[in-house]
């Protein structure tokens, strides 16, 4: 964090390109090899418009925006989201774009702040009720 933190302080916007290769790497790291994250046929058969990113991967991108802003991953003391829509990752060189925006919504006791996050892909909100509580002092 640079400068004083007050209600309305905006976090730097984080824009991340997510490719199918990213999904493979995440699957290996997490152990989540569900074929909806790599197989077009299976993803379509269960009702998705195509291969989708892991929800926890999308959540991690939101967390990265917060910890990047604080400069200290240990400053993140609470984090919650609800998964609203999937991030569809096409099989091309561009992949999908995920954008994370955040704003300080409240200053809490004990030197903490609540940050409300907006996470979108392809113009649609993909995480809802995304909030973080961080130590600011």
TrEMBL record:
Xref: Pfam families: MaoC_dehydratas
GO MF annotation list: fatty acid synthase activity
GO CC terms of this entry: fatty acid synthase complex
GO terms (BP aspect): fatty acid biosynthetic process
Domain MaoC-like: 15-104
Signal peptide: none
Assigned protein family: Belongs to the enoyl-CoA hydratase/isomerase family.
Record PANTHER family: (3R)-HYDROXYACYL-ACP DEHYDRATASE SUBUNIT HADB, 3-HYDROXYACYL-THIOESTER DEHYDRATASE HTDX-RELATED
Name assigned to this protein: Acyl dehydratase
